[in-house]
Structure formats: structure tokens, C-alpha cells
Amino acid sequence: TLSIRKKKIIKPKPRVKDSIVFPNISYKGIFSSSNNSNTIFLVLIDGNQEMFKKHETHQQVKLLKGDKKKITIKYKTEKKTYQLQ
Fold it and tell me: Cα separation of 70 and 22, whole Å?
């Protein structure tokens, strides 16, 4: 008689996505000129005041878009929206 060997099926372990810890961010205000191309957003990052224009990056934080009420930022690979405080 022939013996049949069973192959062990090894399932790949699911990858645990590392959660990104955002710095402490708060949106404090907006300064704009009449033509809106020079809009500056005032943002606190870990207690340090930064002035952003759209698409600028400071401390690995990129300002994607914003208006009078909120801003959307990207940190590493994740996006978050912050309301004016």
C-alpha cells in the first residue's frame, strides 16, 4: 500500500496595520488677501505655531485644503480634518 502524505497548508498571518499617532494639532485661524491666492492658515503642531499655505509641509504635516471653518491635513499616509478652535 502507498501512504499518502498530507501537506500542511500554512496560511499567511494577517498584517496588522500600524496605527499612526498624529501630533497634537489645532486649527487657530486664517489670514487671507483679497485674491485668496495668499491665504495663510495658523496651525498649532505640538504647541508650535506654524503658518501654512495650501500644499505646504511643516513637521511632516501637509495642509491639503482649508477654509474659514476647517482644514484637512495629511500626516504620513493618513488624512484628518480639524475644525477652527
Answer: 17
